[in-house]
């Protein structure tokens, strides 16, 4: 699948700017200890070009970006800035040369204001004192350039995700970035928020900034990038102008094989029995009057914009938040005051925030796996052998790929963390599972595996609720979709009506109004 | 990145790093230095003396290990010990008239100390978990309260155990079996139970999980507040146990009792490799930490190289060193 017609980094003799681009890697290898994670990677970022870097989790995208931006050094091979070999001593040195990496997790001081963040570490001074007025003016100018309406005096903590992203970009521009590298900038953004970001990316492209970004959303790669580089197992397997690559071709290059249907066909019918019945579930401040029935073996989708109360409603249901209303499980009214009580009734919730709330990143795989169902391993002393056996089974059944069994959860790639999280929650043998954003930020091959796992669960008679911002996912997985808007259920769609259009209309409150569709 | 499965090669056993070995190496080094400097150092009498004196802090440090592992802190243990000691003496002196200087009064005193410890720990825990006040603030407050209460109980002076009772209780500190005194035996038992609880029970695992990330624990159906409360109750109980061993030694309590015990206990826990911000704890490390602190004092007393008045300074250097080593152990991982 190697594509030599793709643009390779110029040979060392190439020299000129037009050939080598603004920033390039030439034949870069990188090893961590004995493990070589990058093999002969070459990549060219041109001024005024948006370059998408795609690949499955663990393909080497992050390492590549870190080498480009000075966080890591290549084991061999060269980094070329404007055709000249650059040896960045660290990310500071790279930033001084105009190469800025924006991390997926924002690097902002939450308690400082926007302007304090933009100028952090290089504050403008007048004599020994801070020149606040100049910094405010400059920050405002930067934000205006991005058409971003954030107040320079606002605390970063109070900003929404996309605004934080804009502040990161403003900060990068303030450092006169000529190369902007973004690690999954849209992973936490809704569709509309992503549009705002793309508009800014277009402006930066027009201003001649070289942009590299990674994304698991191939549709947006197709839309906004000029060139796509695909990585697999630490190698560049394709690098072509975006217009020459279909989304399918990208996915196949990433996985290295043709992808069959992403969503498995439903084999088992939805059961008769009602697993969960909600009547007027209210989570104060977030959701009101939720009523629905969930059947055994059913996959119920829960859609809606971020902020529509989906997550909070379900967190309320499992006792993570105070709630009112009637909950019946298996025909009996139950009171759920804590996740522990929910679990005792066979109801578990799998968080959307796998790093912050799902896994203890500095603990091992085994400790994480058994945390949720630890009482099953305590008689009364913890049975380490049983724990190890559970881990062996989980690694096999969920295809968890880890550097070693002793690895810490934080060292796994996103997709493998998600599989571990799924294994952990299912170890509690639930009858009802709520999965919030099952595939956020993970690659397409792993997505397919997770969809199969969810499908298998339902086939075993487990009732599943899937919350997702990705409409194709909700539609492909769920038998029935509930759409939430402003804390209420705006509507239910099933069967033929289960289309992106109807769901979006319900989510946005456009239901019943005619649109020129 | 390779797939891990049954067929995968067994993970290589790495040598324990400095993070694990550090405290043990430091302890061995101290023993070697002590033995080289003074021939009496390794004598039976000296060793048992050091162990018995370390027992109070040691018993408290075992409890403190759980509190710190769960990401919490308790500054009140020294004052709490003084208050419990005062209370125990008052109870026993008060019951003396009715019960006589016998076993009954001693059992009553021990019971009062343990109950007071449980209650004091529970109060700290409830204020921190249910009322959601920072552990630092709560225990800073109770630290002042208990210190003040014992001063008040003693009316600014010293509370003394009745002379007859003191004689009756002395075996609790000076007696023992097979030539090992009770404080050492109790310390050893508490340490063993603590190590077992930390490594082999849900409680220990939950403490580490909560200390690492309490949100993950909460989302994993762990009753986070209950576990936190339990760590404080356990620590309070162990402060009670330590006080029971301490009172027979001097037979008195005053506002000067147990001063800076909280810092010694916290220091021992940190020297032993437990991370101050929680998430990882080891009870055996805290035991080693207590012994290191005890031996430093002992060596300074036995030799005339450095003034014993500098004991605190040397302990301080050791604590800072231990934390630096911890951090490098992490960065290298």
TrEMBL record, chain A:
<keyword id="KW-1003">Cell membrane</keyword>
<feature type="region of interest" description="Disordered">
    <location>
        <begin position="1"/>
        <end position="20"/>
    </location>
</feature>
<dbReference type="InterPro" id="IPR017871">
    <property type="entry name" value="ABC_transporter-like_CS"/>
</dbReference>
<keyword id="KW-0472">Membrane</keyword>
<dbReference type="GO" id="GO:0005524">
    <property type="term" value="F:ATP binding"/>
</dbReference>
<keyword id="KW-0547">Nucleotide-binding</keyword>
<dbReference type="InterPro" id="IPR003439">
    <property type="entry name" value="ABC_transporter-like_ATP-bd"/>
</dbReference>
<keyword id="KW-0813">Transport</keyword>
<feature type="domain" description="ABC transporter">
    <location>
        <begin position="23"/>
        <end position="258"/>
    </location>
</feature>
<keyword id="KW-0677">Repeat</keyword>
<protein>
    <submittedName>
        <fullName>Monosaccharide ABC transporter ATP-binding protein (CUT2 family)</fullName>
    </submittedName>
</protein>
<dbReference type="Pfam" id="PF00005">
    <property type="entry name" value="ABC_tran"/>
</dbReference>
<dbReference type="InterPro" id="IPR027417">
    <property type="entry name" value="P-loop_NTPase"/>
</dbReference>
<keyword id="KW-0762">Sugar transport</keyword>
<dbReference type="InterPro" id="IPR003593">
    <property type="entry name" value="AAA+_ATPase"/>
</dbReference>
<dbReference type="GO" id="GO:0016887">
    <property type="term" value="F:ATP hydrolysis activity"/>
</dbReference>
<keyword id="KW-1278">Translocase</keyword>
<dbReference type="GO" id="GO:0005886">
    <property type="term" value="C:plasma membrane"/>
</dbReference>
<feature type="domain" description="ABC transporter">
    <location>
        <begin position="265"/>
        <end position="511"/>
    </location>
</feature>
<keyword id="KW-0067">ATP-binding</keyword>
<dbReference type="InterPro" id="IPR050107">
    <property type="entry name" value="ABC_carbohydrate_import_ATPase"/>
</dbReference>
TrEMBL record, chain B:
<keyword id="KW-0812">Transmembrane</keyword>
<keyword id="KW-0472">Membrane</keyword>
<feature type="transmembrane region" description="Helical">
    <location>
        <begin position="102"/>
        <end position="123"/>
    </location>
</feature>
<feature type="transmembrane region" description="Helical">
    <location>
        <begin position="173"/>
        <end position="193"/>
    </location>
</feature>
<dbReference type="GO" id="GO:0005886">
    <property type="term" value="C:plasma membrane"/>
</dbReference>
<feature type="transmembrane region" description="Helical">
    <location>
        <begin position="20"/>
        <end position="38"/>
    </location>
</feature>
<dbReference type="Pfam" id="PF02653">
    <property type="entry name" value="BPD_transp_2"/>
</dbReference>
<feature type="transmembrane region" description="Helical">
    <location>
        <begin position="283"/>
        <end position="300"/>
    </location>
</feature>
<dbReference type="InterPro" id="IPR001851">
    <property type="entry name" value="ABC_transp_permease"/>
</dbReference>
<feature type="transmembrane region" description="Helical">
    <location>
        <begin position="75"/>
        <end position="96"/>
    </location>
</feature>
<feature type="transmembrane region" description="Helical">
    <location>
        <begin position="229"/>
        <end position="247"/>
    </location>
</feature>
<protein>
    <submittedName>
        <fullName>Monosaccharide ABC transporter membrane protein (CUT2 family)</fullName>
    </submittedName>
</protein>
<dbReference type="GO" id="GO:0022857">
    <property type="term" value="F:transmembrane transporter activity"/>
</dbReference>
<keyword id="KW-1133">Transmembrane helix</keyword>
<feature type="transmembrane region" description="Helical">
    <location>
        <begin position="50"/>
        <end position="68"/>
    </location>
</feature>
<keyword id="KW-1003">Cell membrane</keyword>
<feature type="transmembrane region" description="Helical">
    <location>
        <begin position="306"/>
        <end position="325"/>
    </location>
</feature>
